[in-house]
Structure formats: C-alpha cells, structure tokens
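Teaching assistant's notes for section 4

Start the section by putting this record on the projector. Ask students to predict, before seeing the second block, whether LVIVD repeat-containing protein will look compact or extended. Collect guesses on the board.
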Amino acid sequence: MTWIRLTWTPLLVCAAALLGCPPSTPDSPDASTPDASTGYEWDGGYVPLEETGNTWTDTGPFAPCTFTTPLLGSACTDFSIFDLSACNTGSLANAGTEGQYMLTTRSSDEPPSFFTGGLVLKSDGGTQYLNAEPITTEARDGNARFYSSTRTFADGGMIGTLLATCEAPQAPGFTGCSAFCRNGRILLTETFQARRLKWRDGESEASGLELVSENPVDIGAPVDVYVTKGHAYVVSIVELGRAGGLTVFDVGNPSAPVKVKTIQLETDNFWNGVWAKGDALYVASASRGVLVFDISTPADPQLLRKLPGGNINVHTVFAEGNRLYAASSSGVLLFDITTPLEPVELNRYAPYPGLPHDMFARGDRLYVNFAFRGYMVADVTNPHDIRTLGEFTYPEHYSHANAVGTFAGRTLAFEGGEGPGEHLRVLDVTDPANIVKIGSFRLRPEISIHNMVLVGKKLYVAWYQEGVRVLDVSNPTQPTQVAYYNTWRELDSDPGLYFAGAFSLRVPGDGYIYVADSWRGLLILREQ
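Reveal the predicted structure now:
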C-alpha cells in the first residue's frame, strides 16, 4: 500500500477438489505455489508484447480551473487559491453530493505526474473524507463546492488537501482542481477527475464464489491474513487514530470462526504483513521490524523478539524453505529460519534506497516489487553475495505484488502494480536479464491490485474495491476471469477509499479462501 501523496510508505496452495491437488487438512499451513508445468493448454509459445506503460493516456489537464499566485505560503484552508472563471460551473448542478468517489489527479508540473485519492461525500450530515482524512472545512459558491482536510502529527507537523469542483461533464462524476500542502505551504497543485464508485456494470455481488462467513476485526484496518494450525492470523494497520495489531480466529469451523485473542502494543501498532513457519508467526511492524511470535499454542501467540533490533519499518514478510524475507526501509532483509523461532539475519538486499513493497521467493531466485524502482529479480543462492539478475520497468510504475510459477517449462511472473492505470502483467522471467511481457489483464484503471496467490492454473487476486477476482491462467498469455466476489459495499464508507476493500488473501488448501478486507474484517469464501 502506498500512502496518498507519498508522504509515507508503510502496503498458496490448492483447493483439492477443484484443482486436482493433494488433499490437505484445515490445519495445514499456506503452501508454496505448485509447479504448473504439465497438463495445461499453453505450449510455451508467445508473441512478445510491447510495454508502453499504464493505460492512462495523458490528454492534458482534467479541468480548466487554475490557481491564483503566489501560492507559496497559502494556508491549507484558503480556497481563494482556486480560479474557477473558466469552468462551466452550471454543469455542477448535476454533480454527485453523495457516495464515494475515486480521484485521479494530474500534477501541474512538467512533465506531469499522476496520483490517486478518494472523496467520501454524505448528504445526511455524516463524516465526510478527503484522502482518508475527515473533511474539516466545506464551502459553496453557487454550484461549485470546496473541501479541505488536514492531519496533524504528534510532532506538530501537518499535511492537508484542498479541493474545488469545476465541471460535471459525466455526472454524477465531476472534475476540478486540488492542492496538497505541508506545514502550511502549498507544495503541489493538480487537476482531477472523480468517478463515483460502484460495482462494475453488469455485476452482482458474486459469481462463482460464495460467502461462508464474515468476521469483524475490531482494531485498525485489516490488511493481511495467514492461515495455519486451524487458525487465521489477521494483522491491522492504524486507521483514523485506531491502533492496529493482531487478531486471532479459530477457523476449525469456517462457517462460524471464533475470535480467540487480540494483541496490541502501545507504541507499536502498525502491522502490515504476516507469515508463519512451524511454531513461528512473523509479523511486519512499521516501527520494530519483524515481530516473532510463538504459536505452539495457536490460540495464544506469545511475542518472543523483535528483529533485527532498533527502529526499522518492515512492510511485508515472505517465507520460503528455510529463508524469511522482509521488505524493509533498509531493503529486503534475509533471515535463516532453520530454527523458525530463532531467525538469524544473513544479509540485506538493497540495490536502491527506499522501501520495497513485497517479494516472492522460489528456489534460488528472489522476485522483488521495488515500488517506484520497478520489478527486480535477484540470485540469492549465496545470501552473502546477492546479485541482481534483471529488472522490468515502465513509465509511471509502482510495482506492488507478484507470484511466480512454471508453465510449459518457462518461469512466468504475474506482477501487479498500484496507481492510475495499473493492472496485471504476465512476464516471462525465464531469463531475468531479458524479461518479456506476454500477457495482461485489466479492470477499471482507477482501482489497483494489492495482493495475489497463484495456485496451479488459477490466480487469486485481492483487488481493493474490485474485491476478489479468480483468473484462469492455464493460457497465461490470456488470463480469463472465472469467478469474483465484490467485497466492497458503498454503504460501508471506508474512509481509506483508494486503499480500501480486499487487501490480501490466502488459499491454504482446505477448500476455502480467506480474505482480509479493510472494512469487513476476515471474510471466508468458497468456490462454487
């Protein structure tokens, strides 16, 4: 998950009956991605596809509104910075004033940059949100509307957003101008388009998937889940001042899970990722690195240690074999987990400064979603001599999540990005020095992928407000949707909006899909 405006950057297995995999029990952990090299339609041939970047075509500013000068020093609630004289404000009579709107913004810089945001509007007096913060000021000038939100930090620092509507060429959606400020100074101006968020045209709540149970999580916003030992471990991040932590469910009966424990630490409560091996549960903490819990008693995790020590932001974790990988502010941390409860740090993979978002490991290869740096492949055969083998980049990219498997003797990666126009790409990474795109799959350009799991010839995707999507990738050059469940509901009014909905999922081979949804908690689905 990437925070709007980039002010901070905190965000396997098989169903035996359906996929022809060996049976497993509800107590089995999430397994690794199985080899998919036999029995499928694809013969390994493909025509390389040109990579031109995301589907967002720049046609210029989204709206004719402009900004007065000078901007520098303008207050974060000063709506006089907007000049709407060139706007057809009369069209705003039909603009929406209720519901949730996805914002795509274009900066005034040259060349421009594209960002994403959200606006939650309510006509009943309820709390409204702009970029995940409560709207503190609202004003009107005829049909034009103005909104601002601010957030103050413990050290006295402040960030804020101002927004003005301009026109409604496709009501209830509208366009306008917005500005981002920090500590009272305008840093960025932009135009935007806002589209009201609903289920995709023609879709119902679900197709091919059914809801078995819905289990609220009381702390923060749930963003990841891991299933092992008959229990689901759900981690949460801070949202609207509510601290996150760990919630444990006994899922021995998936139709009626039982919440058995909640864990929070007073000064360490932004937990974004979770994985397990044996009796060890690994939690990604934004302030203390990797938290190691003993789950020998599955319903009662006990915190043993924090690794590697000190203040370090770990965003996600991934275990494969006797290695644990942690995406951190110091690069990818590598640990030996031969003794799972006593990880030993081996090295750090940091070809670039900054926080990688996620990673996938398979054998001696590490596949890293290095955010703005792109998608990278490294050789980790010798953890003390890690070598970058290749990378894949494209304009305006934010590499976010991936899963890797073998198809017809070739190593393929399914890579998902986050941001305007991002979507699923299928990459041939057999030769990491020459990565080739061979396929893609797209939904709405305003909504991003958060996470995915590859199970044989099916790819399960947690796609934020698009919910859970199941793709048949037996022909990986042409992924085809075969099932979906719309976890997002408009009435839920998740203040996170852009980063909201289905965050993560697990498919542990017991016939169920476990989903961490930021608003609804732990959802357990079953394929029909």
